[in-house]
Amino acid sequence: RLSAQLLMAITLNYTGRFGRVRELIDEMRATCRSPDVTPLALAVLKDVESMYYMLTADHDRCLEAVYDGIEIGQASGVNLWRYHLLSNGAAAALGAGDLESAEELLGKMHQHREGARRLDRCSYHYYRSWLAMLRRDIVDAYQEQKTALRLAVETGCPYYELLCRLAQ
After folding, report:
1. Regions of the chain where pLDDT drops below 50
2. Of 11, 72, 131, 147, which is least packed with CB atoms within 10 Å of its CB?
């Protein structure tokens, strides 16, 4: 059930149906109150929360969900969602102009890049480009965006390709 709700929440988040995402988060939280809930289920919940808070510009709650999810992963060894959690946190920090937190989260993404999927690497370079632009380092921003765009094209994801082309 949580796996299906995760997929629904991602789709609804990307289509801007935040009211429904909020309802799903409440349902997922209720399910996760069960004593036999797995660390993976808790990590999924934290990932959905972090994405929701990132997209609704709630920087503090996003970072709270990110760090809670990472803590769950470290305690249990279930780190399946770590990279995505870090990505959501970096985007929230950049959106809030919190360059220090963005740099820290991007550094952690870089440390855990082994095994990162191509689309995950695309988002990493996209956020590095955004950070460089906020620091007014146009050359670095352009180089990072070129890498992000190349990865988006290789992945075959029109959404990210468009996002990267607009940023470039």
Report:
1. none
2. 11
